Amino acid sequence: MYWAFNINQLIETLHVPAYISAQLLGATLASGTLKLIFSGKHDQFSGNLATGSNLQAFVLEFIVTFFLMFTISGVATDNRAIGELAGIAIGSTLLVNVLISGPITGASMNPVRSLGPAFVHNEYRGIWIFILSPILGAVAGAWVYNTVRYTNKSVREITKSASFLKEAGRGGRQTV
């Protein structure tokens, strides 16, 4: 039985509220800055509002967040992926997600991306969609990736970083 107290896990768990708070503060300050810069006759809302039905917005936000988290899990936590190309994979997924869901939901994919502008503009219509759906989509995306990736190896072995650039440098050199 493993009952030992792991201080590192406790410290990492305590980082989560600080991370969420920092994201929320950043989103609120950014939205406030945009409101100050672009205020005028037509006060522009920089947040997310669904143009379709609530169900359509919920499902769409779930799907795009699922794909984003699945991609991030694949390229950031698995040593079989080429780490140097993670940015291209994640950026491409974001691009496709925004092209598909942007016109309908604003492509939030992050609850604080919607909460910051909602606080600044005092606009909360449908905010539950943009809080609940991305959380469920991210959890589902990570869970599905971990299920697909199942292996008997430890997480430490799986997440060892392997660089294709280093390998190319070793394989490309030939001594005469």
What level of helicity do the residues show? 55-70%
Rg, nearest Å:
20 Å
* CATH fold annotation of the domain at 20-28 and 49-150: Glycerol uptake facilitator protein
Query: Mean pLDDT score, rounded?
Result: 82
Give the low-confidence spans. none
- Give me the strand/helix succession: HHHHHHH
What can be said about the biggest beta sheet? none
| Strands, count | 0
Regarding CATH, which class of the domain at 20-28 and 49-150? Answer: Mainly Alpha
Shape: globular
Instruction: Give the class from helix and strand content and strand pairing.
Output: mainly alpha
- CATH architecture identity of the domain at 20-28 and 49-150: Up-down Bundle
Give the termini separation: 57 Å
Q: What's the CATH H-level homologous superfamily of the domain at 20-28 and 49-150?
A: Glycerol uptake facilitator protein
Number of helices: 7
Estimate what percentage of residues fall within beta strands: under 5%
InterPro entries: Aquaporin-like, Aquaporin_transptr, MIP
Membrane topology: Multi-pass membrane protein
Protein name: Aquaporin NIP1-2
Keywords: Membrane, Transmembrane, Transmembrane helix, Transport
